[in-house]
Amino acid sequence: MKLEDFSAQDQSDLLPEPQKGLVYRCLGCQKEHPIDQLLYTCPECGQVLLIENNEFSELKKKSGKRWQRIFDLRKTLNIPALKGIFRFHELVAPVIPADCVIYLGEGSTPMVEASGLLQSQVGARFYYKNDGQNPSASFKDRGMAAAMAYINYLIKYKGAGKILSVCASTGDTSAAAALYASYLSPNVASSVLLPKGKVTPQQLAQPLGSGAQVFEVPGVFDDCMKVVEHLAENFQVALLNSKNPWRILGQESYAFEVAQELDYDLKGTVIVVPIGNAGNISAIMRGFMKMYELEIIDSLPMILGVQSHHADPVFQYYSEPDPEKREWQPMTVKPSVAQAAMIGNPVSMPRVVELARRYEKTAGAGNFHVVQVNEQAIMDSMIQANRHGHIACTQGGESLAGLKAAMAKGIVGKEHTAVLDATAHHLKFIGFQQMYFEDNFPAEMGVTPEKELQNYPREAVPSGLVRLPAPGNPLEGEEFKAFVSKTAELIAKELGLKVR
To answer: Name one GO biological process term (predicted).
Structure first.
């Protein structure tokens, strides 16, 4: 629809004006810092930051129902600056002018209900939200769109000049950072650090294809992250990991979209999120709390984080039921099929602790949980989901495995409806599917394929033929007829087909 198709009142609300009020707030000393420069940690105490809106109360002048209408009507508009995550402009980054918004097709990813057969196998009603259908094929585009819009704002309005962005990555962050930086070329260039040998070929190809400078670093993601932090602290670069609080703002849009998809009725809903660097689960909790405070939704869903037993520091922290006795301990990770979540020292852990505390204070105790699953369950669940019409990555398999684990523990019941986060596209992790089908996982993974879930191609080469067709050497006449007939008979026999 066109803007002029709406009433004068709707028109005035649909086009947002840039607002002031955003500040960096330190989660340690609680000090505020202005947003006229890119900060990652507090200059006073070094803790991580959240971006908060000191004028958030102004948004309460509109009713929750009015906000619902605004967001729903914006879905019908063909205005790039209001598509994707910036459909929720006032909740994401109201300081950003429309001409600074970067829209590459991110957000508005489909939420697909599982088939009846799959739901009966799992024992619960659930959906997959396919964030692998973002432009770089992962959820990271949500945060990158916000971070790059802010960088674009600094360039256009604050005289920032040319900027080099850097990030450490297990694959998805680098793909998103390189993609969005290339769109802003030549004003923004991209450099990414990847743990050597710990990124799939598909993920490595993405930043290379976008023209980023790629460095393969020995070790794991945590080692890359330390190098990137050193670069950000000592050189003129823009850090694009989730330590960047603008990334968190963009990733809140996942919560806004889920609420909208469910017609803003979240009673009995469980949101299942794999935890890696802990930025996404932090953002999702914060997004739901914003909507709740504005009365856009009248209840908060349960949040269920999931970690592999090969990389589970957040699970280990919350396995102590007494908050006063919990102690944070980073861990040395083991190889995991959920590569994007293979992080032993999440930079957003302070955000998780604070936001989970706020979340349960508002939603009630028992509305935030973290469960642990093993590598076998992750792979079995990914294959099971994709056998029933989904495109889940290994992290999506981790989400389904986490739902099953939570049901076994009695955390989630049949009365709940779950929304599972498939954070990336299945094809990014296709190598793990191949390893499953061929039964050649390294021993340390601890994965033994279920035979009924394995699949592999079978040759259909009929016997008794003198010649077979080949590229540049086709068969003709009776030879070709014989080839077609015998090949069809062979396949029919394999499939158990009956003759008409």
So the answer is: threonine biosynthetic process
According to the model, what pLDDT value does residue 169 have? Answer: 86
Residue 206 has pLDDT above 90, yes or no: yes
Q: pTM for this structure? A: 0.94
3-state secondary structure of 197: coil
Output the six-digit token pair for 414. 């049949």
pLDDT given at position 118:
98
pLDDT at 341 over 90: no
Owner of token pair 């009015």? 66
Residue 26 β-bridge partners = 49
Over 90: is that where the pLDDT of 200 sits? no
| 3-state SS record for the chain | CCHHHCCHHHHHHHCCCCCCCEEEEECCCCCEEECCCCCCECCCCCCEEEEEECCHHHHHHCCHHHHHHHHHHHCCCCCHHHCHHHHHHHHHCCCCCHHHCCCCCCCCCCEEECCHHHHHHHCCEEEEEEHHHCCCCECHHHHHHHHHHHHHHHHHHCCCCCEEEEEECCCHHHHHHHHHHHHCCCCEEEEEEEECCCCCHHHHHHHHHCCCEEEEECCCHHHHHHHHHHHHHHCCCEECCCCCHHHHHHHCHHHHHHHHHCCCCCCCEEEEEECCCCHHHHHHHHHHHHHHHCCCCCCCCEEEEEEECCCCHHHHHHCCCCHHHCCCCCCCCCCCCCHHHCCCCCCCHHHHHHHHHHHHHHHCCCCEEEEEECHHHHHHHHHHHHCCCCCECHHHHHHHHHHHHHHHCCCCCCCCEEEEEECEEHHHHHHHHHHHHHCCCCHHHCCCCCHHHCCCCCCCCCCCCCCCCECCECCCHHHHHHHHHHHHHHHHHHHCCCCC
d(C-alpha 150, C-alpha 145), whole Å: 9
Alpha-carbon dihedral sign for residues 87, 93, 97, 102: negative
Distance CA 247, CA 229 (A): 16
**Comparing 257 with 203, which gets the higher pLDDT?**
257
User: For residue 201, is the peptide bond before it cis, meaning its omega torsion is within 30 degrees of 0?
Assistant: no
Q: How many CB atoms sit inside 10 A of residue 45's CB? A: 12
CA distance 102 to 91: 16
Nearest to 171 by CA among 191, 185, 192, 146: 192
What pLDDT, on the 0 to 100 scale, is given for residue 411?
A: 98
Domains detected in the chain: 111-135+252-453 (3.40.50.1100), 139-248 (3.40.50.1100), 462-500 (no CATH)
